[in-house]
Automatic annotation (TrEMBL):
GO-annotated cellular components: cytosol
Pfam families: IU_nuc_hydro
Domain Inosine/uridine-preferring nucleoside hydrolase: 3-291
Annotated organism of origin: Phaeobacter gallaeciensis
Keyword Hydrolase among UniProt keywords: yes
GO molecular function: purine nucleosidase activity
GO biological process, one term: purine nucleoside catabolic process
Protein name as annotated: Nucleoside hydrolase
Organism phylogeny: Bacteria, Pseudomonadati, Pseudomonadota, Alphaproteobacteria, Rhodobacterales
UniProtKB keywords: Glycosidase, Hydrolase
Length: 303
């Protein structure tokens, strides 16, 4: 499966990218980056560093720095650390970004791989909305768009009502959900069931010394956040669950519903079912043991 991951690395983003590189069913063509867990320049730097450490030479195209119509964006340093990889500081600058901005790059790649390309969006949806604005055929040219975002049947995480990726650019997300295309939404409804524990990280680091060790180390900050904020002994494999949903749909129970996003007020960023919207596939159930097992099995094979 040909895939581009649109990402804001980010600790669980790094895990998802490592999974995509390790999984034999995925051919990772590129990463596109967006603001979110960190500022976009740092997202790109983190993405290039990770790819280099994984020994993978694919482009990184940098995208949106800010959400639509809002200037008060702040990175989630309290969740992902000051530079996005937990306690790691001064992440080395490796290589350079692709010459094209993310949205243009996505449009070109969707045309070049018409009907074959899966875009897995694991950050705010600004680049995806930008690509749809640039080329109304963008959505139809994709095989599918799989999104980590939203909380349709459960409470949010960044606020009681909203999940972080949707909250960071509610307007862009609403535009994406208004578009007729093959969309799968992998939200907190299922990703909070894929808890990855400190013991899971230790086992991973034992099997995959470099990458597993790196993911274990950067995740200490993230695990601490989960424990302090939610009393959980593990962190959600949010972004990896979305990447896994791209090729393992049978592990998910899907509802076909329309979705819209609250654009203001205390509910800002809430994802609600909306009968007036095109139907998308919303994950509402998951074989969580199988998803966690797939993640461990594949990433454990990395050096
Ligand atoms: C999502 O928000 C970010 O913090 C994570 O990387 C993930 O994409 C979870 O709500
Ligand atoms: Ca993310």
């Amino acid at each position: 499966m040909k895939m581009i991951i649109d990402t804001d690395p980010g600790i669980d983003d790094a895990m998802a990218i490592a999974y995509a590189v390790a999984a034999p069913e995925i051919e990772l063509l590129a990463l596109t980056t967006v603001f979110g867990n960190t500022f976009v320049g740092q997202s790109s730097r983190n993405a290039r560093y990770l790819l280099d450490r994984l020994g993978v030479d694919v482009p990184v195209a940098q995208g949106a720095a800010l959400p639509y119509g809002a200037s008060d964006y702040q990175p989630s340093a309290y969740v992902h650390g000051l530079e996005g990889y937990g306690d790691m500081m001064d992440i080395p600058e490796v290589g350079r970004n692709h010459a094209l901005p993310a949205a243009e790059y996505l449009v070109e790649m969707a045309q070049a791989h018409k009907g074959e390309l899966v875009v897995c969006a694991i950050g705010p949806l600004t680049n995806i909305a930008d690509a749809l604005r640039l080329d109304p055929a963008f959505g139809r040219n994709l095989k599918q768009l799989v999104i980590m975002g939203g909380a349709v049947y459960c409470p949010g995480n960044i606020t009681d009502a909203a999940e972080a990726n949707i909250y960071h650019d509610a307007r862009a997300a609403d535009e994406v959900f208004a578009t007729e295309m093959e969309t799968v939404l992998v939200g907190l409804d299922v990703t909070l069931q894929t808890l990855y524990t400190p013991q899971d990280f230790e086992a991973l680091a034992g099997a995959s010394v470099d990458m597993g060790g790196f993911l274990r180390d950067i995740s200490q900050f993230y695990l601490k956040f989960y424990k302090e904020a939610a009393g959980l002994e593990g962190c959600g494999l949010h972004d990896s669950t979305a990447v896994i949903a791209c090729a393992h749909r049978h592990l998910f129970d899907l509802a076909e519903v329309g979705v819209s996003v609250a654009l203001e007020g205390p509910e800002l960023g809430a994802t609600r079912t909306d009968a007036a919207r095109p139907k998308i596939k919303v994950c509402r159930g998951i074989d969580h043991a199988a998803v966690v097992g797939l993640f461990s099995d594949h990433v454990a094979r990395l050096p």
